[in-house]
Design brief:
It is a single chain. It is built from 4 helices and no strands. It has 146 residues and is mostly helical. The protein has one domain. The chain is elongated and about 55 Å long. The chain has helices spanning 2-28, 37-68, 75-107, 117-145. This is DUF4149 domain-containing protein. Keywords: Membrane, Transmembrane, Transmembrane helix. It comes from Ilyomonas limi.
Length: 146
């Protein structure tokens, strides 16, 4: 039973991290006095790269959990997990590097052309959070309510 609760805990903590960083820290830091755009972007790069590493940790914990709990896992929860991981892959290998490159240009004081990358990231985070919360509910139903 412990391995099921670890899965549930991992998905809920992962969801909490996404909410705390992507939907709170990301814009609140710019409201603090003395935080300029370059400083805020520098902080954001550091925090989002740390979040990304934590997300991979939680994805690995869930993947191991899926292998240890094969008999109890339904297809819908696997689809939700796969969606979250696909979005994480997209963020890791495309969006975050592209946003980091743009942030570096701004930090160095150069102008940067308008882009939709930030909005793609926001949409990906909203979808990922929805998948994780739904996955958490599914795991709760399978492991706790039965």
């Amino acid at each position: 039973m412990v391995k099921q609760y670890i899965m549930l805990l991992a998905v809920l903590i992962w969801s909490g991290c996404v909410v705390a960083i992507s939907f709170m820290e990301s814009w609140l830091k710019f409201r603090a006095s003395g935080v300029t755009l370059p400083i805020g972007l520098s902080i954001g790069r550091l925090v989002f790269n740390a979040l990304n590493k934590m997300e991979w940790f939680f994805a690995a914990v869930l993947l191991v959990g899926y292998f240890l709990n094969k008999a109890q896992i339904n297809t819908f929860s696997i689809v939700l997990f796969a969606l979250a991981v696909c979005l994480l892959i997209m963020e890791t290998f495309w969006l975050l590097p592209a946003l980091d490159a743009r942030a570096n240009i701004v930090i160095s004081g150069k102008p940067v052309a308008a882009s939709s990358l930030h909005w793609y990231f926001v949409v990906a985070e909203v979808i990922k959070l929805g998948a994780l919360l739904t996955l958490g509910f599914q795991l709760f139903k399978v492991f706790v309510i039965r």
